[in-house]
Amino acid sequence: MNSCRYCQTKLRHTFVDLGVSPLANAFLGEQELHAMEPFYPLHAYVCSNCFLVQLNQMETPAHIFREYAYFSSYSESWLRHAHDYVEMATKTFKLTGASQVMEIASNDGYLLQYFQAKHIPVVGIEPAANIASQAESKGIPTIVEFFGEQLAAKLVQEGRQADLIVANNVLAHVPDIHDFMKGLKIALKDRGVLTIEFPHLLALMAEKQFDTIYHEHFSYFSLTTVKAILASHGLRLFHVERLQTHGGSLRIFVQHAEDDSRPVHASVSSILAEERNRGINRIETYLRFANEIKQTKMDILRFMIKLHHQGKTVVAYGAPAKGNTLLNYCGIGRDFIPYTVDRNPYKQGLYLPGTRIPILAPDAIRRTQPDYVLILPWNLKEEIMAQHAYIREWGGQFIVMIPQIEVL
């Protein structure tokens, strides 16, 4: 058993044990269906000292992210989120053609394209070469490397220290938190601003979002823990916003500890107080989660078996990492769900890891007219239901499983 990746305390307390599972984005090709598929323990622990929820590292980031299947630009709601952020950041931080914006885990350029349209210089950092090439094709300069202290020092030497650093949904993917934070400290200009978005651990627990736990996510954060991590590296949190993305996220605004140009907003103390009141600093709060998830699994299985016995057909929408955690933990395979669909052509023709459910193009739903469509990326349910409202023509209905089973 490993020690805490932040404070090195021995990990002794289970947050939730989801058995064994393949890597959530390790999709299979036709030729791989007859070969062995590696499964790894999916066991989340909570540190009794700093309360960081985390997985033991089973694979290196280089193995996990060398070729990645998640392209941000296939979600219309996420593109709107990115556009709105750029409008806010440009105005709030008075960004101009003389500014430098850096995004870590810039994916396919989904966000930087909006800064670029305003003629604000950008640079993306994206370790997955297949995704970075999509950004490059849009004319967005992208460095195909993992971000950390070494790369940050190199960027500073090249004169590319940032006025604004954007880090959306990357913090969970970082196995070496200290190296990452050191890099942020180096790469940020003296009066620069760093914004980080991450799923809020409180929302994960309250909404029973166990499916957001998978091997590519090494850590799960409360604001309390993130604030302490930032402070230990000379970075100060000065504002927090609540977001609806990913089932409930936080966007934090950070500056150098030496920079007193921006006062600390009341939002920081407000959310920290909420976390204290909900027991974020008590180990007992975390230990209740595992039993709640066992019950959720039983409820999901009973529901799927009931539909099966009624002769109802259920297909899935999406091939997100969270969906693969849910299906593998609950043991739901092709006997319950004959196929799933996804808008991303990179995934079409492949098979989900573990369950080996085939991934088809979305028009398969209209052809087969299932009774139910299970939305695996439940955080995008409104967007997906609007795009596929035609299933009502034959009486079809949508299902989500998290935070509880709903027929929509």
Work out the count of structural domains.
Answer: 2
Strand order of the largest sheet: 6-5-4-7-8-11-10
CATH superfamily of the largest domain: Vaccinia Virus protein VP39
Shape, per Cα inertia axes = globular
Query: What portion of residues belong to β-strands?
Result: 15-25%
For this structure, what is the CATH class of the largest domain? Alpha Beta
CATH topology of the largest domain: Rossmann fold
Helical amount = 25-40%
Rg, alpha carbons:
21 Å
Q: What does the largest sheet look like? A: 7 strands, mixed
Give me the CATH architecture of the largest domain, please.
3-Layer(aba) Sandwich
* SS-derived structural category: alpha/beta
H/I helix tally: 14
Straight-line distance between termini? 42 Å
Number of strands: 17
| Low-pLDDT windows of residues | none
Explain what the structure shows.
- The protein is of the alpha/beta class and 408 residues long.
- It has two domains: 215 residues, Vaccinia Virus protein VP39 (Rossmann fold, 3-Layer(aba) Sandwich); 109 residues, NAD(P)-binding Rossmann-like Domain (Rossmann fold), CATH 3.40.50.
- It is 33% helix and 21% strand.
- It contains 14 helices and 17 strands.
- Strands 6-5-4-7-8-11-10 form a seven-stranded mixed beta sheet. Strands 14-13-12-15-16-17 form a six-stranded mixed beta sheet.
- Helix 5 packs parallel to helix 6.
- The protein is globular.
- The model has no long low-confidence stretch (mean pLDDT 93).
- It comes from Paenibacillus aurantiacus.
